Records
---
Amino acid sequence: MRIVVLLVVVLAIVGCGKQADDELLVSAAASLTNAFGAMETAFEEKHPDTNVVLNLGGSASLREQILEGAPVDVFASANRSNMDQVVAAAETFGEPRVFTVNLLQIAVPARNPARVAGLEDFADEELLIGLCAEGVPCGDFAREVLANAGITPSIDTNEPDVRALLTKVEAGELDAAITYVTDVASVGGRVDGVEIPDAVNVAAEYPIAVLVRAADHGAAGAFIDFVLSPEGQAIMSEFGFTSP
């Protein structure tokens, strides 16, 4: 009886250890929420022994989590600068790889009640204008776009990530904001988009990397390979992203 009990305990411990080892924590930019939700499902279908857990948020916040020692396996950033800081801290295992590109777009509430026509309206103090905060990729890119257009914006709110910003537009709390093309498309008509001229727009490159503290570098690398595969790129395209 004692031997049987010990065997059950050992098997339980081994089982728990295996479950923990098979969990893959992916920290990804908030703008990847829908695309990586679909990516998670597709990857797990091909790798049923791996449980992908998504940690979604602003790239700067995710970067800080990593630099403070969070046990992350894969980091997908919405810009190079946040990834560069992780690389500089020797936290990546191998070189980051750009896996997709996104463009900026003006987001307005459905039917555009304030009649926002373009970037010039971001200087109108009578309008409620929002951007992502400085240091957040969508905020830095938005400021770059506005600088390219020679416009000094009248900003009423700086949001921590693109999802928080888009929520305020959708609720009608803002007349206009600058988000990604993919975010406007993701809310199914509840927010309208106003195009930004190509001459001043910015192409946001998204890098992805395995981290040094990954529990299983092989599984983390397999996830990145899947993201870069034709199937993974088709998923990104489905949500409005373009291949690098």
---
Amino acid sequence: MDIEKQRQQHQHRQTIINLYNSGILPDMIAMQLDITKDEVHKVIKEQSSEEERKYKAVKRASNASSVGMFYLDAVISVDLAIKHAQYSMWKALKGEVPEFNISMMEEAQNILEKYAKSKVAFVILHIDIVGSTAMSMTLPVERLATIIQTFTQEMSLIIAAYGGYVLKYVGDSVLAFFPVNLEDKYLPCANAVNCAHSMIKIMREGLNPILSEYDYPEMGLVVNKT
């Protein structure tokens, strides 16, 4: 493949991504660019997979003993997290129920077992949806469950990216913890606070705009740190 053709393909792909990120639905993108819906969905899916791969890479880096603790906010792209959340919610509202990933809770269990016979400090983060009660009065149970599951999955991803672990899910809330490094106990606190800020931004700029497009009420977020 020559360089010019590669450049054209890259521009075409970027155009699709830019249109999608601007809030245009995939069906409309296909009509505007005179391409198939499958082609649009393929580009969006590939972009989503790339973003998730970056999440996992950051997670591995934050857990590597050779790297140690550092300010993860410097390497995490919240914009990518927002785009990932938008695509996940869009898929959920289109009827593709998100797969519940229990591996994050398994990681948390492994960490807790590691510290079972020692004293250790944790930063605790509690995330709760504001507005789910109102939604439960207007939405079918299945649709509400899908929205909440998408929310918890996206919050779990950003928690993991910031070096935290999901302890448990309680209804429409998530309870997470960040192990405190004795060498620098302030770093986990900073990562937890930055994680909370990113969560609020993902809710406002990622999940809520897609809910609004489908005429669903927007959700708020309450984050508590101890």
